[in-house]
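Example 9 (inverse folding). The structure is encoded as follows.
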């Protein structure tokens, strides 16, 4: 019983913070790719994240079409989750800035995971339901098109087979190995404490 209570608390914190973090990062990605704002999924993400984002935007303006406030909110949400997990675990709190550095690694990893799974789901849907007009399918295409189209221009389909996803997966894995993992080692990120790693 003594061990299960902190584990239940950690599980609850991770679940709730990760769900909200995913909503914030997805909103950032959808704004970045200029996805359909009126899509029901986009509207849901806006309603969920607006209460925290609107006040933050007064302090942190966007830059060059990039919603910096969403990035800051994602980092703060992840850092707050890390602090809570550390407190529940009873481990001594590290340097105050370490969880923020860990959050940068988590944010980068989560972006790569979103790209990876969006491409996989888009590929599967192109086989199973190629003409689907579902709002989720539309958003997935809007996320993956900016990633896939530059590669499709360089390597056109061969015999009707689109090879661009293979190169996208290679690029994502290289970024994961060369950037995210090295940053995780550099910042001393403990495994399992942040989303995406």
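The amino acid assigned to each position is listed next.
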């Amino acid at each position: 019983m003594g061990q299960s209570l902190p584990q239940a608390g950690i599980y609850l914190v991770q679940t709730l913070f990760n769900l909200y973090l995913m909503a914030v990062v997805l909103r950032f990605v959808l704004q970045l790719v200029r996805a359909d704002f009126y899509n029901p999924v986009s509207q849901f993400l806006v309603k969920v994240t607006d209460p925290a984002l609107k006040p933050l935007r007064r302090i942190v303006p966007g830059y060059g079409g990039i919603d910096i406030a969403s990035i800051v909110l994602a980092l703060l949400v992840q850092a707050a989750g890390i602090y809570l997990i550390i407190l529940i675990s009873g481990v001594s709190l590290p340097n105050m800035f370490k969880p923020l550095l860990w959050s940068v690694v988590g944010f980068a990893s989560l972006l790569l995971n979103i790209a990876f799974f969006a491409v996989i789901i888009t590929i599967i849907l192109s086989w199973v339901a190629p003409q689907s007009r579902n709002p989720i399918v539309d958003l997935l295409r809007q996320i993956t098109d900016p990633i896939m189209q530059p590669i499709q221009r360089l390597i056109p389909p061969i015999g009707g087979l689109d090879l661009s996803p293979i190169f996208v997966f290679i690029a994502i894995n290289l970024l994961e190995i060369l950037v995210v993992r090295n940053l995780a080692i550099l910042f001393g990120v403990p495994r399992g404490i942040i989303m995406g790693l």
